Amino acid sequence: MRFIKEVIQTMKDTTWETAKETRKDTSTVVVMSLALVAFFAIVDACIQGLIALI
Length: 54
What we know:
With 54 residues, this protein is mainly α. The chain contains two helices and no strands. The chain has helices spanning 2-13, 19-53. The radius of gyration is 23 Å and the shape is elongated. It starts with a helix and ends with a helix. The mean pLDDT is 96.
């Protein structure tokens, strides 16, 4: 029973992000992911071009 009371207290003490903060963090992750995809696509194309020359 003590464990459940501690879990409930911990849940009450936890600071949850607001919807605005969650949207901001999600958009940051999406933008950075797309930027990395673009970067690696360019690097991959360059490496394939170099290999084709050999």
